[in-house]
Amino acid sequence: MTLIFLVVFIDLLGFGILIPILPTFAVKVLNMNESSVGIVVAVYSLTQFLFNPLFGSLSDRFGRRNIILISLLLNASGYIIFAFTHSFLMLILSRVIAGIGGSSIGVAQAYIADVTTVQERAKGMGLIGVAFGLGFVFGPMLGGVFSKFGYEVTGFASASFSLLAFILSYFYLPESLKNLGENISQKTRKLLDIKALGAVFKQKSSLFVITLTFFLTFSVANIYGTFAILGSQKFGFTDFDNGMLFGIMGIVSVIMQGFLMGKLTKIFSQLQLLIIGFISLALGLAMIPYGSTFLVMSLILGLMSVGTGALQPILLSLISQVASESEQGMVLGLNQSLSSLARVLGPLWGGFAFQYLGYQIPFFTGAVVSGTLLVYCYKNFNIHIKPKISHV
Fold first, then answer.
1. CA 172, chain centre distance (Å)
2. What pTM did the predictor assign?
3. Backbone φ/ψ region at 150: left (φ over 0), alpha (ψ -120 to 50), beta
4. CATH fold of 2-173+195-389, please?
5. Which of 161, 199, 283, 381 is the most buried (most CB within 10 A)?
6. How far is CA 70 from CA 67, 101, 107, 162, 165, in A?
7. Element (H, E) at 329
8. Residues 68, 6: contact at Cβ < 8 Å?
9. pLDDT in tens, 281-330
């Protein structure tokens, strides 16, 4: 598990570098409006939405390692194109290619599921969360620093991290599927089994967790297209400031998922942790438009990250447990794909609302959705989740 964690972390460093940079680059250099920025952010996730189920099924058939290697090369290519971007279309192209490469996260989650027992799975999924958290700590911070030397430097830096992850994977990452040869020889199995996907939606336990994950992701997705613009236009934050703020979010997420969740799951039930998470997330999102200073915004984002840090590993653990072993890749890929769809809708709505309805609206929307999820989860958790997995 340690190696796949390292590979995901290094790759996410490259992704994280562009998080605080991309929106302000689009506005300042390419003279794009907020709605167009939302489109650029959404295109990346739309590509993931289209490719995640395919990559999940391909990894079930041809192996996790091979798909991860291909994805890392695509990531590097997309970042290099970003370094040379001077138009809206080039920016879109760079995000499409990087989005295809970014479809490997579901594969990495399936890798963890392959090499862990049910009892170890929450910890393993938590490691993926820690990789995200660390990527969000150091990536945006590095992005803020690199932006001082030119936006193209951030593109080359991102590509370098993806190439480093590729080298580590190529030489040291073993295949996690034990019967890979048998999987490849199953000619009758479809790469994207529509009937199997339909069966997942008919399973109430899977549908319940996927629904929570989808709307949770939508709630948070507003930030990636609008937060940096909010900080820059309304509060005078620099790219470096925005990078540090995203880094603070990552630090809190790492503390939650890497250090506190193991202890908290022994004290609280999954339902209780989900309730705590949704309350923290809703409050944080609602207060973002009023974080007019760096310190105040840091505290607000910290509260929000407590919420996401509690919610993400619990939901990932649940979704991996309700899926059968033979369908881990497909179900996790489907979950990741629908999360990508939420990341499409979130930035599109966020950009439109920011430009035409008011800069507060994207964040208020996320807060309302999170509050609704709190009620939905409280009323339906014990109906759809069996008591034997009520604790992580």
1. 25
2. 0.81
3. left
4. Growth Hormone; Chain: A; (1.20.1250)
5. 161
6. 5, 7, 12, 11, 11
7. helix 328-356
8. no
9. 999 999 999 998 999 999 999 999 999 999 988 998 887 777 666 666 67
